[in-house]
Amino acid sequence: MPHNDNLLLASLSPGDLAALQPHLKLAHFEQEQVLYEAGDTIDATYFPTSAVISIVVTLSSGQVVEAAMVGRDGVIGASAALDGKTALSRAVIQLSGEAMVCSSAGLRGAAMQSQPLLSLLIRHEQTLYAQAQQSTACMAAHHVDARLCRWLLRSRDLSQSDTLLFTQEFLAEMLGVNRTSVTVVAHTLQQAGIIQYTRGKIRITNLVGLQDAACECYEAVKSQYQGLLGEPKHQSL
Ligand SMILES: [Zn+2]
Hints:
Layout (H helix, E strand, L loop, with lengths): L6 H4 L3 H7 L3 E6 L4 E3 L7 E5 L3 E7 L5 E7 L19 E6 L1 E7 H9 L2 H27 L2 H16 L3 E2 L3 H8 L3 H13 L3 E4 L2 E4 L2 H7 L3 H13 L8
Antiparallel strand pairs: 1-7, 2-6, 3-7, 4-5, 4-6, 8-10, 9-10
Helix pairs in contact: 4-9, 5-8, 6-7
The structure holds zinc ion.
Zinc ion (ZN) binds next to helix 5.
Keywords: DNA-binding, Transcription, Transcription regulation
Protein name: Cyclic nucleotide-binding protein
GO molecular function, one term: DNA binding
């Protein structure tokens, strides 16, 4: 069942899942597709199964910077079920793939009938908030090469693939740096045998090397999500 590929849905009790099931449908999303803009009304929530989604802040200059990355360990737009009906930031597809889409009304209705589901959604929003706080600290304190490694590792976990289809422009935008910085770091990592970079595609060739080069924020966010999901026995990132 596709819903099992989203770890939040997979963690639900049979009763909670049955309540959501009529409101869920699988959909495909393409890279750079915008799910909603800041200020939009949230009328759908997205439980990614293979798609990876970025929550980004947009500045008046047109620059965008990523605050959090959400994939199969999370949900986008769950605050609508908790009465936060307006999006506060942009949600954009970072890696093409699929997500289970749930109507906000359906999620809200199910959450109001189930304390465990309501608790899970509240804990998820706390985890998302913690991830955004970690991103703030990371940007202020960590070097761009360690940040890029952190970012590639989380992308790998969420997409479950060692090959990531990213252009240097997109990477620069997500990391809030100029393209030249990304080019320099990607070249250094390639020289070290950690990644192979061709136009629009990054392949991770030395996972341990990438982990060693990443800042602590990768593990910090990972452990927060493991706490949220109660470290499921059969499905891990
Ligand atoms: Zn960091």
